[in-house]
Amino acid sequence: MATLLSRSAILLHFLPFFLTFNLANSESFIGVNYGQVADNLPPPAATAKLLQSTAIGKVRLYGTDPGIIKALANTGIGIVIGAANGDIPGLASDPNFAKTWVNTNVIPYYPASNIILITVGNEVITSNDPNLMNQMLPAIQNVQSALDAASLSGKIKVSTVHSMAVLKDSEPPSAGRFHPEFSTVLQGLLSFNNATGSPFAINPYPYFAYRSDPGRADNLAFCLFQPNAGRVDSNTNIKYMNMFDAQVDAVRSALDSMGFKNVEIVVAETGWPYKGDSDEAGPSLENAKAYNGNLIAHLRSMVGTPLMPGKSVDTYLFALYDEDLKPGSASERAFGLYNPDQSMIYDAGLSKQQQTSSPPVVAPTPEVLKSPVIPAPTDPGQTSKSPVMPTPRGPGPTPNKAEFLNGHEATILQSLIMFTVLILTTPDVSKSPVTPTATVPSPTKTNNNATWCVPKAGVTDAQLQTNLDYACGQGIDCTAIQQGGACFEPNTLLNHAAYAMNLLFQTAGRNPLTCDFSQTAMLSTNNPRVVFMPEEMPNVKNTEKKKMASRDLELLIPVSSISENGRSKQTSPPSPPNVNSTPNHSGHEAFSKVIRSWASKNVILLPIAITFYVTWGFIRFVDGLGFITSITFIFLVGIFMSSWLGTSVLTLGEWFIKKMPLVSYIYAASKQISAAISPDQSSNAFKEVAIIRHPRAGEYALGFITSSVILRNRDEEELFCVYVPTNHLYLGDIFLISPDDILRPNLSVREGIEIVISGGMSVPQILTTVDAHAKFGPRKPTYASKV
């Protein structure tokens, strides 16, 4: 019974997220190149099965092999197909040839096969063929016209792929500029990209950058995302910690300099060979694993690059398999991630089990040397085990979201059915108030297989400082270990480095590759939290010591509260006296609490998902007029519902809903949430407007006081619940804050809501504060005084 309850609890708690994130089984920003210059490749069906077992969300083909395209049908995997350089003259000179090409290579397979991008040529601009270069844009335009004629405009993009050699300057990244000799052709291509929303596809290879200058200090580490001193852009004063970001930002600067700031970048190829000839610098199994593994972790962190923060550029790894028939050095035949028998050549972290399910981390401002991120005397460093620099190969597409969803409709429906069956088969639970027996967790061990990244014993202070600088230079938020931060004490290099190293590891989805730090770190199942008492903090004022006396300085993952002697306490309130509780009764109550928690906290995702699918259905209903249709429909529904007939229908509908066992509870919870965040004057869910210090020192957040609680520990301390919206009013965070730490602006709740909805445009130029208890007095405790 306990096992059933445990599994049911987990399913119920995460069902709304299954609905919202069901499409994330594969990661749309991670793709792979599928080259075919080989005589030992497995059948397409076997490759399709392999791809579905990984986190790879897209595949780039250099041609239009029908066997592969068919094998990928109904998998939801995005497919990039390519027109060869030899096809460009025909495509450019004859629109009918372009129509035939589309009718042969696209129409028979789409939309079952999720073709998202067509690349016309590969690295044509740097091919030293002026005729081909001048024919490329007409060829692309004719392919686009053929797609338009087939009613595929906007569903499948068209572009081409470029080598990094199109750049005249790439260092520092802010000075990135295209070669003047290519400016005329690029102006036309970029204008096309901008008009159609197609990406600028580039092939950055840190490996080739390393190979061209292997003797440069820290060059290998810089290319492999490993700890290094970093490189400062003298124009922006931004420190770059890896070659990949520097190369991509150089392309961004080049595009911006030509006025195409809205053209998205796709990394069509990047990779590292795992072996090579004896005279080749850089190829090795360790370097290949480090580069690809650290790159994948970097993409998953959603940190982005300094010039494009907060998002991951679509990136296609080179390559799925080795191509044993390619000419050239041995490294050219050793870029593969998998063997022909589908076994891994090395583990780059692409299996679905290695994906993180954590929400993406919002990228902080890139490190600028004028304001160091941490209280360390030396400059932050960064990372990389492998080489650096690009080679031309192929583009990466921008996925067509509507068609991607198409391939996953069956899975989404399965989730909805599972949700319904699970709820309808839930047994009735008693409404009697019963508190289940609390389990006291161990103070240092966890029971959920959690892992932490910690420094190894005997690591020198110099290496700890390097690790600290490197981790904070990756874009994680290290303000907690700055002076005055929540985790500044104990003020030791070891504790600060351990915090930063573990935070980077957790942010990257607990990928073991991110807990290497030049072999100075290790994984641990012991929670590396630190608990300290006032007498251990001589540099902290007495008032602050009192506040921090029992604070748990857990590294990243919250745990239960800590008692005076450092032992763990139960996190649930004490059981009320004289309550008879049987195991079966307790199990029912635990299950009931799960349902209540799920419905009250996560049900908001259900109407969001329904709204999304309804709107999406209308947009697809009338091609080209979907938006107008949707807006008109919503407008007419609004008029109808405001009439007496609409009100009557709504009342009747609510009556039916309230008679349905589970649906009535979900509807009531949703309605309560909607009422709580409604800007209607009649709503009193928001007591008053509050300003709190968040998320770091010197920054403030606008929120709303919703209630107050009494924290019962050694002293009875009153805390206010402050709701800080993060997405208009519908999503946000709850903070429990002492009244002394809250600033109360002279704003009404309606004015506060208007500020949030307007994105801050309606905020007054001058804010004044009011008396702390003028509007909302403290809530008195309802329990007996402590003995």
From TrEMBL:
Keyword presence, Disulfide bond: yes
Principal subcellular localisation of the protein: secreted
Enzyme Commission numbers on file: 3.2.1.39
Signal peptide positions (record): 1-26
InterPro entries in the cross-refs: COV1-like, GH, Glyco_hydro_17, Glyco_hydro_17_plant, X8
The keyword Oxidoreductase is assigned to this record: no
GO function term, MF aspect, one: glucan endo-1,3-beta-D-glucosidase activity
Pro residues composition bias: residue spans: 389-398
Highest taxon of source: Eukaryota
The reaction(s) this protein catalyses: Hydrolysis of (1->3)-beta-D-glucosidic linkages in (1->3)-beta-D-glucans
Localization in the cell: Secreted
Top EC class for this record: hydrolase
X8 domain span: 451-532
TM segment ranges: 603-621, 627-652
Region (Disordered): 351-398, 564-586
Keywords annotated in UniProt: Disulfide bond, Glycosidase, Hydrolase, Membrane, Secreted, Signal, Transmembrane, Transmembrane helix
Cellular component terms per the entry's GO annotation: extracellular region
GO biological process entries: carbohydrate metabolic process
Family statement: Belongs to the glycosyl hydrolase 17 family.
Protein name, per record: glucan endo-1,3-beta-D-glucosidase
